[in-house]
Amino acid sequence: MGKSKRNTPKPGGNRAQRLADRQAEREQGGVAAARPFQGLAAECDLVALREFVPSATAPLPVAEGSRAVVLATVLPGAVAGLARVQDGTDTGYVGIQTQHESANPSRDLAAAIGWAQNSALGDSLATAEADASTPELSAVIDAGVPLEITVHADFNWWIPAGVQPDPQVAATVERANAAIMPSARLSGLDAAWWVDAGERAHLRWVRPEPEDALMLALARLHAGGFLSLGEGSRFAGSFRTHGLLVPVFDLDRERHPDEWIDPATEFGKRLAEAAASDVPLSSAERRSRDGLRSRQITLR
């Protein structure tokens, strides 16, 4: 079902290192958050940007500080932060897909934001030094403000306008551009992302509902034959990540992403109606629920 691969380049990053980082945090008293971005208006998009969106940026509504801070899916070298002049303005960048990460990405981002607001221009932050005393993200940004996301077709934004990169940097950007999977956020829908994975395209829709409630709604639709976006689509399964479910649909990649907005909108309405039902599941719906659970993949 087009499993997420955090498909942007993370030089030197690997699963063993991430597990080691998280174990070290636990030994230092850190606590893993089951739903780290809960309470933020941008929760679902933050999960998408962290897990499967290749190249995107969004200004962050920081609560304090005079320097603008921009969230990026990934920064050069998969660092946690960097500071530079962008379009004539001192700007701090923080990455949500990083080479080293703790068990709580909310605190990682909060730590990186604090660094980005006070660092010297030209500096970069390899790892956000978050610990149990670091505030949650909701304490350093306006929790009620959604993100204004810009999706990029490549990583050319890594190089500031008017700067001539050295050959090594240019080669890094070229390699990153060659690996990118085209992506688009479906207009008018919260955290519904179209991704071209090669042989097929996918809709990956990060949903805000509690996992159990959403699974019941999906089961009702599946049993009734309505778990689809119509012709050219097929329900593939779902991701479980950061306390949320992400239903995934295989799509006809020959169709433009915008062609899926209306079908996805209609599906969203059906899903909301199914979620509002308090009628006990029928035997067919229970079978559907069990089958759908077997098609989940947990991202760690």
UniProtKB/TrEMBL annotation:
Residue ranges occupied by any DUF5926 domain in the UniProt entry: 36-300
Superkingdom, taxonomy of origin: Bacteria
Region (Disordered): 1-31, 278-300
Pfam family, one: DUF5926
Name of the molecule in the record: DUF5926 domain-containing protein
Positions with biased composition (Basic and acidic residues): 18-28, 284-293
